[in-house]
Amino acid sequence: MKLRVWIDSIDFYVRTCNIFRNFPFELKKVASQAISSSDSIHRNIAEGYCRKTIKEYINFLTIAKGSLGESISGIHAYKKAGQIDQSDFEELDSLAFKLENGLLKLIESLEKKEKEGTWNQSILIRESNSLYSSSQISSNPIIQQSINPTVSSSQQSNNPTIQ
């Protein structure tokens, strides 16, 4: 949650929601698509970050960049159609420009790490999450029994089957 490009993508989503939430009923599908494409950006950044390999991470960042492109295309069309005003267009366009550059720099940085072999693929335990601190993770976990009783083979044979 400290990744700048992720924070910027959340800001872009919030501003998009604020602009498009009051669209008239006949444009709800347009508004929904604008919100959906902006929502996809931060989700793909997060999903890529949570993947194990750098190739997957870069792939999800590329998908996020595609969703951003969809959003940018939309705001240009909405502006030309008079559906958003100049100030909303400029604000979204400026946020999108910043976000696009951030995504490009992050992808470039990760591609460099991949090429150099400096990417650390180990799974990190978040220090701030005391529930899963390393002192509580055991190599010999306790497996709890199911609270549902098992069905014996004699009970199973009494159940009719549908043919």
Notable characteristics:
163 residues, de novo design (two linked rop proteins), 5 helices
Please tell me about this protein's structure.
This protein is mainly alpha-helical and 163 residues long. The chain has a domain at 4-113: 23S rRNA-intervening sequence (de novo design (two linked rop proteins)). Helix content is 63%, strand content 0%. The protein is built from five helices and no strands. The chain has helices spanning 4-20, 28-49, 54-80, 86-116, 153-157.
Outline the low-pLDDT stretches. Answer: 123-163
CATH superfamily of the domain at 4-113: 23S rRNA-intervening sequence
Number of helices: 5
**Overall outline:** elongated
Overall radius of gyration? 24 Å
Q: For the record, give the distance between the C-alpha atoms at the N and C termini, rounded to a whole number.
A: 53 Å
Instruction: Give a count of the beta strands, DSSP E runs of length 2 or more.
Output: 0
Bin the strand percentage.
under 5%
The SSE order reads: HHHHH
Mean pLDDT, all residues: 81
For the sheet with most strands, the description reads:
none
**CATH-defined topology of the domain at 4-113:** de novo design (two linked rop proteins)
* Helical fraction: 55-70%
What is the CATH architecture term of the domain at 4-113? Answer: Up-down Bundle
> What is the C-level CATH assignment of the domain at 4-113?
Mainly Alpha
Structural class: mainly alpha
